């Protein structure tokens, strides 16, 4: 299902999401057999940033356990949001 581009974003800004999502995916699943599996703990540095947010979501999706490193409690709380 495709979602329309938000009116407040330029096309370049909207494309940035997929640039970080593709990078996170390749890091987590791009070198078989060294990929994330259910129950695997995964260290995510900078979890409140674009790449980190995508990594957390992908790890959770396959049943892994994201272990997040951030610079403040506020950013840590952001990473716990569903």
Low-confidence runs: none
Largest sheet: 2 strands, parallel
Physical arrangement of strands within the biggest beta sheet: 1-2
Q: How many E strands?
A: 2
Order of helical and strand elements: HEHEH
Judging from the principal axes of the Cα atoms, what is the shape? globular
Strand content: 5-15%
User: SS-based structural class?
Assistant: alpha+beta
Tally of DSSP helical segments:
3
Distance between the termini: 20 Å
SSE blueprint:
Layout: H1 11-29, E1 41-45, H2 50-61, E2 65-69, H3 73-80
Parallel strand pairs: 1-2
Describe the structure.
The model has no long low-confidence stretch (mean pLDDT 92). The radius of gyration is 14 Å and the shape is globular. The protein has three helices and two strands. The longest helix has 19 residues, at 11-29. The protein has helices at 11-29, 50-61, 73-80; strands at residues 41-45, 65-69. Helix 1 (11-29) crosses helix 2 (50-61).
Short recap of the structure:
Helices cover about 50% and strands about 10% of the residues. By secondary structure, it is α+β, with helices and mostly antiparallel strands. The protein has a two-stranded parallel sheet.
